[in-house]
Amino acid sequence: MRTYTPPTQKPYDDWHNAPDARGVQVEASHPEYIPTPRQLPVIEETKKALEQLEKAGKYPYNSDVNKIVCAALGVDMTDPIINPSKDYNVQHGIMGADIYYARRYLDTQKRVTENRDTIKAFDLLAGMEIGQIKINGKQAKACAIKEVSKYGANISFTLGSKKYEAHFDSLVALIGSVKAAGNPIFANKTEEDNLT
Description:
Helix content: 25-40%
Largest sheet: 4 strands, antiparallel
Low-confidence stretches: none
Distance between the termini: 35 Å
Oligomer: single chain
Number of domains: 2
Structural class: alpha+beta
Mean pLDDT: 87
Shape: elongated
């Protein structure tokens, strides 16, 4: 059984003050975040818990994820050092905060992987003219990709007579917005066919 090491500072500070590969201070939800050795077991066990719940067809409620991770890391949730409920407004105290940030890290890494796959599958390029797109339930026109990377896409579009710019963190969401507008530009491509 693995053991859990609590952070030496508040979890927020522990997960927000780590440098990325460039030495810049970033938080766990930043794509370039590098987990500390203390955080790695929490991330690994959180990932396993999420996979276990998904495989069982269950929604990953915090309480279920926390229970699985705590068991795997040998954490007693009644320990006041781990769960000082007066100091933390997070389910399961310090451990719950650690799991929360581990989930944010995992969500970001998943999105970055999906974005890389989507760029390749749909041949997305800066300067690509997309045409119609659905933005906040409204039909926009003249959409073009200004920048695209593993971090998402910056687009420009026209809504009525005004020009706008927007950022999509998720390129899967961008493709969905194009298809929702009835735009056939990606009609011969599907996520299932291209993202395997």
